[in-house]
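Q: I have 251 residues here and want to know how they pack in 3D. Can you give me a structure?
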Amino acid sequence: MESYAAASQVYAAGLIFARVGAILMLLPGFGDTSVPPRIRLSLAFLMALTLMPVVAKGMPVPGEVSGVAGAVIKELLIGLMIGAILRMMLSSLATAGEIISIQTTLAFAQTAAPGQAQPSTTLGTFLTLIGITLIMATDLHHMFLAAIVRSYSIFPFTRPIAISDGAQLAIQTVAGAFRLGLQLAAPVVVFSVIFNVAAGLVGRVMPQFQVFFVVTPLIVLLGLSIFALSLGVIGMVWLNRYRELVSQFLG
């Protein structure tokens, strides 16, 4: 390799590939199961070659194999941490879809989700696809690439992994994702509570009235109508929250 690149350059490119590859495997859109692994690895390899002259200058190569293995494992953990945090926020849309499906009696309608290995509710899959579409349509994925470059300033090669800070950020992200999912589904939840209370009162006043056969089609129709009316607000609110999360990696 010395005739093409120095040992330090090959070592630095390998470390960059380990971090970038781990991030791209979990990144929303890029890391979905519908994207072939070869495409993700090829993109990570090209990014490693691009970033190597910028973020790694004169990096010494450890003299022992254990030092090289430790550095690679460290970069993998940093990449997995960043990618997992960015992926966690996407679960807020799936949570909102699950809640809306339960409230509209559509929880048994399952659809194969492109970003997940197991199927999800139809509304959850629909909202997740909308989230990925908004990321690509609004050029938010450009902030992903900027965050990858910025990560080498926050987590340089010589700095140990901030495990406690990463765990705290992950916990806050998961809690915020579930809270945001409930907030996004709030219009349908409020309607469902009011509608079910009204249907219960009608059933108590008129015991002979077939409440189930009348209420079920109405709650599906009206619930989906409210969901459709609030879809634009759901997309904008989620996109703003997600942009705030990515901005934390940009400083």
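Q: Anything worth noting?
A: The first strand starts at residue 110 and ends at 111. The beta strands are 110-111, 120-121.
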